[in-house]
Design a protein that fits this description.
3 helices; single chain
Amino acid sequence: MTREIQIEMSMLAWAFALGICLRLVFHGAELLRKLCFRGRIASACLDILYWMLASAAVYGLMYRYASGTLRGIILLFTLSGLVFMTAIDRRIGRKIKKHVKNC
């Protein structure tokens, strides 16, 4: 495997991991919104802060690694990480709800 292909594969792995991290940060923001920031303005500010962080992280990944042909694939892998983590969150949530109902 050539060095260029190794760099591209590691970049795609980083994009997938970034998607997972962004979902975890979003989950944390949801918890903060439910626990601390109940007002509309505070929730809106928290959402804006999240999207600024997410866009800066994705832009930084694209700026650091990508040539022009891989930018769409980076976005696809980041989205795949988000969807993957969302599916895991839902499964864990269902198991917790079943466990709470049975207790």
